[in-house]
Design a protein that fits this description.
Layout: H1 3-20, E1 26-34, H2 41-52, E2 61-67, E3 70-72, E4 79-81, E5 98-101, E6 105-112
Parallel strand pairs: 1-2
Antiparallel strand pairs: 1-6, 3-4, 3-5
Helix pairs in contact: 1-2
Bound molecules: zinc ion.
Length: 113
């Protein structure tokens, strides 16, 4: 379950940001998780409880923002949501091989005090 490692990294970053702004508690932790990232949101939430213990993030609210996959068409420049791994451009019909969004796994923002 690599979600534990991902969560550890996210919490380390959040703690760093909190300390940098002189805060002693993190109230909300927002993560952006792409649908194509291979990360399971439920597993992240499960890992969060355990990993946050004893950190500035303990007791914080975890918000996971899902990001729908989006492709970019090199032929016509159209960006489109690609559902069910259908990468055909809806505008010109060309096959897109470039996934622009949906693979991210990042700390989006935190609320501290
Ligand atoms: Zn196109």
């Amino acid at each position: 379950m690599h979600e534990v490692g991902i969560m550890q990294n996210a919490i380390l970053m959040a703690e760093q940001q909190a300390r940098d702004s002189g805060a002693s508690r993190v109230h909300t932790l927002r993560l952006r998780v792409g649908d194509m990232s291979g990360v399971v949101p439920d597993a992240l939430e499960f890992a969060f409880e355990t990993v946050a213990k004893g950190t500035l993030v303990e007791g914080a609210c975890l918000v996971i923002e899902r990001v729908a996959p989006a492709c970019w068409c090199a032929a016509c420049g159209e960006e489109f949501v690609c559902e069910d791994l259908n990468y055909d451009c809806p505008r010109c019909g060309a096959f897109s091989t470039e996934l622009r969004r949906g693979t991210e796994m990042q700390l989006s923002s935190i609320e501290v005090s």
